[in-house]
Design brief:
The complex is a heterodimer. Chain A is α/β, with parallel strands linked by helices. Chain A contains 15 helices and 8 strands. Chain A is 42% helix and 12% strand. The chains are: A alpha/beta, B alpha+beta.
Amino acid sequence: MENNEYGVDHYPFADFENQLYPAKFVAECLQIGTVRLGEIVREHNLDIRRIPRGSVEARGYGASDIFRIANIRREIGGVKALQRQITMAVYVQKGGTAKTTTACNLAIQFSLMGLKTLIIDNDPQADVTSMLGYDPDLTASELEEVGVPGNRAVDGHLGNLMRVGNTYAPMTLDEVIKKPFGEFGPHLIPAEVTMDEMDLVLRNANGSDFRYSIFIEQARTGKLPHCDLSSYDVIIMDNAPSGTMLSRNSMIASDFLVCPIRMDKFSFRALSRLAFRLNEFAKDFQRSPEIIAIPTMYIRNRPRIQANLERLCDLFPGKVTKSPLYHNEDYSKSLEEGIPVSLWRQAGENSAGAFREVFAEVVARIQTVLEATK
Amino acid sequence: MKSSRPLGSSKPTHIQGVPVAEAPAANLGRSMSEILAAQGLLDDGSSVDNPPATAESFHRENKSGFHGENSVIAPHKPLEGQFIPAKEGVTLLDIEVIDRSPYQPRRIFNEAALSLLADSIQANGGLNNPIVVRPKADGRFELVGGERRWRAHEILQWNQIEAYVRDLSDEDAAVLAVTDNDSQEALTDFERALSYKNLLDQKTVKNQMTLSRRVGRSMATISRCLAYFKLPEEVLTLLEDDPAFIGTKHVADLAALADEGHKDLVVQAAQLIFDGKLSQEAAVAWIKTSAKKNSEQPPAPPVPVKLYAKGRELADLKVRGQKITLDCPKGVNPEEVLELIKKHFDPPSED
């Protein structure tokens, strides 16, 4: 093998543009019927690739087509948008509870709703970045050597956009942003290792707990010419399971805090700790984000795990989604192929299906909370 | 359905004896921009990052958002312990009346690190940790600790600095200058070694033991540092130029090699490290191998001696250290050779 310099026979690389999806899958993603899907395609003269199947040709939708259709549905009023722009943080101070999976798939689902979504990788480990197909370690030319497009390399992260202190070279949003599924899919502000120093940068800054809030507030209102985030309906930040300034900042900046909690290794403490911090914050500022706890790694018919879920619901009434995410092989299999489970063709009812149910609950909760705030 | 706990009306408030914090109800009524505005963090434009340091509000401690930890607290009603209390004993001194410390062990001032420090001082609106000075006879002040902070103020073009004025003896000032630096951006090993040596030479501290206690470094560290002064003069001159080029890890090796009479090699190797042509580790290895080459000629391979008997070649004889080996060519029975050899020696007496 010629690529052995990198220790890989085959660089795991998913070319999203050449992933083709059948109409049934697309319709299910968009929660519409295949007939309606066909109508939209015809009405808007969409140019969908044809793939031979038996004696007739069938449509083969690319990922970017799916998101384009989602966007069209929004424009023609086929979906209910949110009352206002929202910021979410996925955070719980416990490792391996499916934070990254949740963040990525939430972003995809929001885009499938037709909402313009930005996901910010706020973890120097850059898990979201890699889950969406980018390489936080290799440079563009190194990637091209192993046969991966150079635009899969990461150049710049949140620190380069925030321009606090002079640790990071200032860059513009256009230079940093990644669009793994095209213009209408979720956009990504990636991360890489040098983001580690962000903690120090934030610590040294004036108003160090509020830097993300300030940044998002200014970028959303168009006050930052180099980084205009005014068009995003949803901003999702994925965090490391640590208590760094990065996580603190994203927690304070968020309207909704999504906390995936593992049911097979139940840790109520992580959530309790979080609740404690939020209480303090609420006392000082008369503001508190809504917690949305999602039970993950749920296994049916196991009394111990069922008991854990009951306990969680009792401890945080009204904060836990009724549908859990199941312990399922699809997550690791789709990860191996480099495709988030929501866009993985083979995903079953217990993975992508369950996620859609959880997502529906999340959206309902968001709408209730926003309604109450008005 | 089986359950570990009967589902009743009472809500658990504790798990494993630990109270569980109740999640606060969502409250997004107050918008983030309101909070930021109240914090004074949303002033338009650049003032967010560069609070103007006017003469009156010279790095004001009571500015909201001073010190990151406290920024979570509401600005208007200061809670107890909100602000670092007006620091007791801190004097605002003019930058110009302060002189450098003669005991300053630091020779390298990293510009990038200095500007980072200046940034953080500016962002905090002052020092967390005032510098320490002592009064001089002429009414000026001498720096004891905080030359980097002082230089950072110069970069910021601030003309005053917060300082503790302390009456210190020369000895105390000298020791403080070392300990103060030791706890901050790392001194190079050589800089540290020099200052330790000075303290010892001037009898500021009695012995290495006392030094170890005063500067809070282990005896092992101190003796590793002092090994620098066993290096040849030429190497020490190079170290004066770049104190960082040899670390304590290899000093002992180099000193030992110089001591064993390979001084020239050590100087040569040091120059190579200094020029960046060799790593420290490689240099030590290089000296060792070159020294070996020079001293002991490798033993010449043994020259075989051929044994003949009755005009016929019997065996190749080689001497290897304390051993003698005989190699018999084809067609010669080694047993016969052994018999022949035996004949030449006295048979054991049969008494």
